[in-house]
Amino acid sequence: MTKIRIGTRKSKLAMAQSKLVADAIKAHWPDVEIELVPMTTTGDRLPGPLDKMGGKGLFVKELDAALYERRTDLSVHSYKDVPIEVDPNIPILAVGRRDYTEDVLVLPKNGIFDTSKPIGTASVRRALQIKLLYPEIETKHIRGNIFTRLDKLETGEYGALILARAGLMRMGLNDRVHHIFTPDEMIPASCQGVLAVQGRKDFDKKYLKGFHCEESWFLCQVERSFIRTLDGGCSSPCCCHAAREQDMIRLRALYSRDNKTIVTKTALSEPELAIETAIRLAENIAKA
Predict the structure, then answer these.
(1) In which domain, by residue range, is 245 found?
(2) Residues with catalytic annotation?
(3) pLDDT of residue 288
(4) Is there a single domain that holds both residue 198 and residue 234?
């Protein structure tokens, strides 16, 4: 019997997301044995802002090592957390359907938005955009998993939180969503809401055909082309959101050179030119 070991972070969300991949494999290959291998990453252990400690790669370092050492066969990541440059020996083998790319506003259970308290977010990208929407409200850094952040919200440390809609939905917490920000209100992180499966290049991708979404892959490559051009990540707030608009691709992009002010631009492209348009958009926004 074939056995596939899937490396995952230990958080409830990461485990749930890895189970989505495992279930997709089992649905098409019921005789395959699946084992989830949870582990704690450097990013999980460090408490402060990621941009001061090495960026999003801190969430994948241990998972990459497990693939290289053949302790696991696959890793599951939130694609937005995967560094732009991926080791060609352990490539992204599949991505899931794009689910709920938006950011959302979350209030305490009592439904009261206490604007005298800060809005909690771990993202400079979100903080900069929140300042435009709610200029009178302070933002304050927050780290931890979804449940840790919600606990801090309930204790009164924050008046609201900005979180990714996809994570809340996957945890069955859709009732905590107070407001869904449209991409015109708040441009989400590139590849937000998309799960990525990474593995050694010799892994048989037939097991992932039931999970992989080609449309999602295409839109993510458009977004990542923008980020790659700017060499962006946690230390340089920038993002690009690509979406179908009839038979065209609408790009919405954001860039901050100083972590204080932002430049946003949009573009409309034919699908076959979308990556080229994303690169040109990045070059233009860097000059603005």
Answers:
(1) 223-287
(2) 81
(3) 82
(4) no
